[in-house]
Amino acid sequence: MSSPRRIALVTGGSRGLGRNTVLNLAQRGVDAVFTFHRHQPEADSVVAQVAELGRQAVALPLDTGNVAVFDAFVAALQAALAQLGAERIDYLVNNAGISHHAPFAQTTEAELDALYNVHFKGVFFLTQKLLPLINDGGRIVNISSGLTRLAIPESAPYASMKGAVEVLTRYLAKELGPRGIAVNTVAPGAIATDFSGGMVRDNPEINRRVAEMTALGRAGVPDDIGPMIAALLSEDNRWINGQRIEVSGGMVL
User: Fold this and answer.
1) Which residues contact 206 (CB under 8 A, 6 or more apart)?
2) Residue 33: which of 85, 106, 68 has the closest Cα?
3) Which domain holds residue 87?
4) How far, in Å, CA of 116 to CA of 65, rounded?
5) Which of 23, 131, 231, 247 is the most buried (most CB within 10 A)?
6) Strand, helix or coil at 139?
7) What pTM was computed for the model?
8) Does 158 qualify as catalytic in the annotation?
9) Whether residue 1 has pLDDT greater than 50
């Protein structure tokens, strides 16, 4: 007897951790709708890679920092789900994000607003809009950061927004519990992707410093994170709820 079809929505799925999550979900038999902001060729590449794994993916454009477009996005998502032969999603991964590095004293109002719009307001209202489309018994994962535990210079504005998401996660777990929806936070450590201009991946000195402060002796890579998120969404981890799970190789223990 075949298992029921499962579908995930992953924001920011064309690159980095989002892309790796989509591909690892496909390896576990999960189809995906994922969003991208500006990188259509990269999104198309992910769709093709998912197809090579024998699953289906649909890429939809979305600016997760612009609440005004969320109604139109929900309509586009419903059309994409119909294309996949479904009406609802099982999993939501709020992954899309922007980076920011500046001292507290020099951070501008516009910079803080941009971080707020993407990392908190967007997560809050997109999840709210999607609630009717999430199956009872589903899962939500909000992506945070190791920076909510560690105080690293020039990260206060970004980390503060991620801290708000971690609090929101616990409240969502409580309020969505009657629907059997588990909600957790995954907090990656420093990962070698193109995020923050690729500084962990491409700057040998930063990569070395990260490795030195990590118990397992290296910086993280996307394949350290995507499989963990895919596993967390699985039925094997159904009893994990309302938790912040740091995936950092043991940074600053």
Assistant:
1) 199, 200
2) 85
3) 6-247
4) 8
5) 23
6) strand
7) 0.95
8) yes
9) no
d(CA 102, CA 108) in angstroms, rounded, equals 9
Residue 209 burial by CB count (10 A; 0-12/13-18/19+): exposed, middle or buried?
Answer: middle
For residue 40, the domain's CATH number is 3.40.50.720
Q: Residue 238: what are its φ and ψ, rounded to 5°?
A: -60, -20
Q: Strands across the sheet with 89-94, in order?
A: 57-61, 30-36, 6-10, 89-94, 134-143, 182-188, 244-247
| Candidate list 91, 116, 158, 171, residue with the active-site label | 158
pLDDT exceeds 70 at position 196: no
Phi, psi of 58, deg, nearest 5: -125, 130
For residue range 123-155, list pLDDT tens digits in order.
999 999 999 999 999 999 999 999 999 999 899
17 occurs within a structural domain? yes
In a domain, 114, yes or no: yes
| Residue 32, token pair as written in the block | 């995906």
DSSP secondary structure of 217-252: SS-B-GGGTHHHHHHHHSGGGTT--S-EEEESSSBT
Residue 57: CB atoms within 10 Å: 27
Each residue's pLDDT tens digit, 155-166: 999 999 999 999
Domain assignment present for residue 253? The answer is no
Q: What are phi and psi of 226, to 5 degrees?
A: -55, -45
**Tens of pLDDT, residues 52-69:** 999 999 999 999 999 999
Instruction: Determine if residue 19 is left, alpha or beta; phi over 0 gives left, psi from -120 to 50 gives alpha, anything else beta.
Output: alpha
Please indicate, yes or no, if residue 236 is contained in any of the structural domains. Answer: yes
3-state SS, 15-65, equals CHHHHHHHHHHHHCCEEEEEEECCCHHHHHHHHHHHHHCCCCEEEEECCCC
- Total domains in the fold of the chain: 1
